[in-house]
Write a sequence for this structure.
C-alpha cells in the first residue's frame, strides 16, 4: 500500500484535513451553465458518479491512496480512516454525499498490477432530489471563509471531439475468443463450474487526445438509468450497482441475462418476453442473485430477494435485473455498521462478473481468458466519512492509457452456462461494447 496525501507536514505531524460543506444553487447567477453537474468539470482528471442528473462530481486531489493485493479493500479503508482521524468537518447540509468524500476504483483480480486507488478530491459538488451542495477539502491551517462555487469551478473549456477512432483486437481476437467460450462451456459440462463469466477487450485509438468529459456527457445523456463514472482514468456507464449503503439500508442491483435490442419497439417487446422466459438466461440470473444474497446475509438482519427478475431496457440491450435489499444488523457496543467499501469487498466478485462457484470460476478465468482485466469488472464508486456510499461494478467501461490519452481499452463480458453458444456470446459482447463506442463517436 502506498499513501500519497497532498497534506503538508510540519514538525513530523501532518496537518488535518479541513472539510466544509454548504448548500448552493444549481444553476446560479454565478455559474449559469451548471444545470448539468458534468458541465462543472474541467479536463484534468475529472471525478464523477452521476445518474439521471443527480450525483457527485469532483476535481483536484487532496490525498491519494494506492493499494495492491488481496487486502487492497481493507488497506484502502484503513488509509481513509487515518485521514479522517483528525479531520475538522463542518457539514451544513448533512445528506448522503456531503462532508468528507473519497472516490475509488479497484482491480477485478487480487494479483492484478492495477491494484486499487482512492482519491480524496479538493472540491466536490453534489445534487440529490433538487438540493445541491459544495464541499471543499483542504489542508490549510484554518477554516477560512467559504469560497463561492464560481471561484472554484475550472475555466470553462467545452470538450472537443476525439476525432476519428480506430479499433483493433485486444489481448484475444474475436475468432480466438470463440474458442475461449467453447473451453468455458466444456469446463461447465465437465462439472468444473456451474457458470463462468468470460470477458474480452478491444483497443481504441482516437485521432486527438481524449477529453474524458466528451465521453461522460455522451454516456450520461444516452444511458440515464446507469451510473456514469470517472475515477482515475476508468470511465463508463454501469447498469449494475454492486452495493449502496445508506443509513442502515443496503441495495444491490443484479444484472445477468442479456439480449440485444433491434431498434424496433414492437420487436423489442417480443425479445423482452423471450428473455424473461429463457431458461439459459434465467439460470445465469439465478446464480448471480444467489451469490449476492449469500454475501449480504451475514451483515443483514433481514433481506428481500425477488423471486422473479424484471427486464431492464437500455438503449443497446435488454437485461434481466433484480434489486436485492437488506437491513444491516444493528450495531452493538462499539461495533459499527460495516462500511459500503467493506460490503463491496464481501460481494466482489459476484457471479454476474465471475461465476459459480466463485473460486473455481476465478481459476478458470485465469486459465483460459487470456488477459488481465485491470479494473474492469471491479468495484468503482465513492464513500463518505460514515462509511455509507455507492459502489458499482465497472462495466460498459474503458480504461484510458496513462501515458497516451489517445489509447483506450474497452471491455465486455458474458455469462457462460452449459447451454451457451460461442457465436451468440460473441454477438452479446459486441452489443456490450456499444456504449463506449458511442461515447467515443
Amino acid at each position: 500500500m502506498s499513501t500519497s496525501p497532498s497534506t503538508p507536514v510540519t514538525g513530523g505531524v501532518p496537518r488535518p484535513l479541513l472539510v466544509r460543506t454548504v448548500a448552493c444553487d444549481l444553476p446560479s447567477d454565478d455559474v449559469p451553465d451548471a444545470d448539468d453537474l458534468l458541465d462543472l468539470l474541467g479536463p484534468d482528471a475529472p471525478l464523477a458518479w452521476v445518474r439521471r442528473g443527480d450525483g457527485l462530481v469532483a476535481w483536484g486531489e487532496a490525498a491519494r491512496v494506492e493499494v495492491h493485493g488481496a487486502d487492497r479493500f481493507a488497506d484502502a479503508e484503513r488509509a481513509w480512516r487515518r485521514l479522517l482521524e483528525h479531520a475538522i468537518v463542518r457539514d451544513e447540509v448533512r445528506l448522503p454525499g456531503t462532508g468528507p468524500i473519497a472516490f475509488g476504483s479497484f482491480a477485478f483480480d487480487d494479483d492484478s498490477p492495477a491494484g486499487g486507488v482512492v482519491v480524496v478530491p479538493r472540491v466536490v459538488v453534489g445534487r440529490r432530489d433538487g438540493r445541491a451542495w459544495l464541499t471543499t477539502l483542504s489542508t490549510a491551517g484554518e477554516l477560512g471563509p467559504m469560497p463561492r462555487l464560481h471561484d472554484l469551478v475550472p475555466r470553462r473549456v467545452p470538450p472537443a471531439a476525439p476525432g476519428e477512432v480506430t479499433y483493433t483486437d485486444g489481448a484475444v481476437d474475436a475468432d480466438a475468443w470463440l474458442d475461449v467460450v467453447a473451453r468455458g462451456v466444456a469446463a461447465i459440462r465437465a462439472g468444473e463450474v456451474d457458470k463462468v463469466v468470460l470477458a474480452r477487450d478491444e483497443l481504441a485509438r482516437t485521432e486527438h487526445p481524449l477529453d474524458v468529459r466528451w465521453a461522460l456527457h455522451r454516456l450520461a445523456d444516452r444511458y440515464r438509468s446507469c451510473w456514469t463514472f470517472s475515477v482515475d482514468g476508468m470511465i463508463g456507464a454501469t447498469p449494475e450497482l454492486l452495493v449502496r449503503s445508506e443509513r442502515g439500508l443496503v441495495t444491490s442491483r443484479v444484472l445477468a441475462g442479456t439480449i440485444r435490442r433491434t431498434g424496433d419497439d414492437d420487436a423489442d417487446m417480443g425479445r423482452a418476453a423471450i428473455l424473461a422466459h429463457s431458461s439459459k438466461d434465467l439460470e445465469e440470473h439465478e446464480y448471480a442473485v444467489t451469490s449476492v444474497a449469500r454475501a449480504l446475509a451475514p451483515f443483514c438482519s433481514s433481506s428481500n430477494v425477488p423471486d422473479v427478475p424484471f427486464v431492464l431496457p437500455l438503449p443497446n440491450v435488454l437485461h434481466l435485473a433484480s434489486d436485492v435489499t437488506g437491513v444491516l444488523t444493528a450495531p452493538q457496543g462499539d461495533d459499527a455498521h460495516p462500511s459500503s467499501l467493506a460490503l463491496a469487498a464481501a460481494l466482489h466478485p459476484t457471479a454476474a462478473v465471475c461465476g459459480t462457484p466463485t473460486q473455481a470460476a476465478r481459476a478458470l478465468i485465469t486459465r483460459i481468458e487470456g488477459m488481465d482485466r485491470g479494473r474492469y469488472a471491479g468495484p468503482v464508486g465513492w464513500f463518505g466519512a460514515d462509511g455509507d456510499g455507492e459502489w458499482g461494478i465497472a462495466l460498459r467501461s474503458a480504461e484510458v492509457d496513462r501515458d497516451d490519452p489517445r489509447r483506450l481499452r474497452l471491455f465486455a463480458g458474458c455469462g457462460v452456462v452449459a447451454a451457451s453458444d460461442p457465436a451468440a456470446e460473441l454477438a452479446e459482447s459486441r452489443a456490450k461494447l456499444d456504449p463506449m463506442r458511442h461515447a467515443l463517436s
